[in-house]
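Figure 2 data, in text form.
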Amino acid sequence: MSSKFLSVALLAALGAAAYGCQANVDGSADGQPSPPGGAAGSGPQGASTPEQVLASAACQKPAPGAAPLRRLSNAEYRNTVQDLLAVVPGIGAAVSTATKDFVEEAESLGFRNNTDFLGVSSLVAQGYLDAAESLAPAIASTAALLPCTTQDAACAKTFVETFGKRAFRRPLLPEEVARYTAVFDKAQAKGYGFQTGVEWMAFSMLQSTQFLYRVELGAARGVDYAPSPYETANRLSYLIWQSMPDQALFDAADRGELSEKKQIEAQARRLLKDPKASRLLEYFDQWLDTDRLTTFDRDVNVYPGLPANLPQLLQNETHAFVSYLLQSPTGSLGELLSGQYSFLNADLAKHYGVTGPTGAAYERVELPGRSGVLTQGMLLSHDKPTRTSIVRRGLKVRLDMLCNRVPAPPNNVQLDLEGLGSGLTQRQRLEKHRVEPSCSGCHTLMDPLGVVFEGFDAVGRPRVTDESGMPVVTSSEITATRDMNGAVADAAGLGQALANSQEVRDCYVTQSFRFFYGRDYSTADQCSMAQLFIAFRDSKQSLSELIVALTQTDQFLYRPAPEAL
């Protein structure tokens, strides 16, 4: 391909700009409103319950918040290419190779798909260019992607219309068809054959903003503004599958459907039953930090004899557990946080020191004393190579289970706990540390939540003594919460308290909003947030029903009119 052609494609990728609202660490701080259902007086006109929010004047007509232009995340890109090119032999390995040098996205509010942080730097653009150049030859050489065999300009045009519709997730406009067939004509004029011409067109499409972004222009619907049927199909498939629509969604959009809530709900439930719904685990990996297990590192002198594949075993455990709850009619947030069972295979059961499965398959095993995902890989992703980390474990719960804000430590703070005295447990050192006024405020928020997990070491095994052989104490007094202050005995006790907490339920809805809508909430989202709180409550905190509810809000069903953007 000519360097001129490459540079044009690169500029096209750089030309799009995402926009949206600035995210904050804590929704109740720095001017961000508390979500309805949280603190009293947080909704419009002082409304304190979701029902009061929805009864307010602000919610008497569709009230969507911002609808930023969303670039595909790395996970969405990989899934989209995988599905777009599913008929290409060896596409899985090809996608892995093509995207291996993609720039990792910045994290915001615990997630890596926030639109504010998905800009296109020169390195990101180069990654897209390299991926397109790697994939285009496979597209051009795969007969199943070519709608005809005549190998002429008419066939090239048909390819643009058929492949382009799937790549752009909508029918191409006449001027777009002309633009890409002109690329084919240019290749022909330079003496290249039909296959090279198709390769050039495919390369160009994979570099287009229409492929790399989820572009929405919307359509008038009465006095309201809403996504078009194809845009709604995209919203559905990317929310549940993290990928492009399938043929059934394209067919529904072709028929002009997907404008009614019941139609959208039916499609959402269909998508949830598809194997591709397993991609919802991307949300849980980021929320629970089990994706961080790829950097898992333990000192073999402190923890000898660990399975070489322990990080993968731990992530598989959480995946099996979450998948079970997503597929179960009764799978709830409470069970996610407090279930005293998990899914183990022979290797992980041996590591935990329990009787369990004898093969490679993951099977349910009762584990009294454990507490759902709280005592799985999430716990270990915050520990250190030689010991557990009470502070980091507690911070994880405070930030991501309670959605509370914890200020950064002072610049001159003493972080060396070992210097606080020998012969002390980590808990005792932290108790001395909290005597310092500059440390007390933050550590009071974190440490009591972290010490309850001291019954599990830094590789996930139950224990009664710490790394130094000193007895561990797991009892704690929880403070600074809306509805779960008080004594807890251990991790299972904290898990039950979290499972019973309305603050935790509100936080989970908030976290789901942030990930699945790709941004933090604002005052403009209070109607949609109220709709989610009510749906989650009425479903008895069902994990799968909340996914469906996310497709039924004003935020999903509508978009701001152009003049409001």
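Caption note: Strands lie at 70-71, 213-214, 219-221, 224-226, 341-344, 363-366, 476-478, 486-488.
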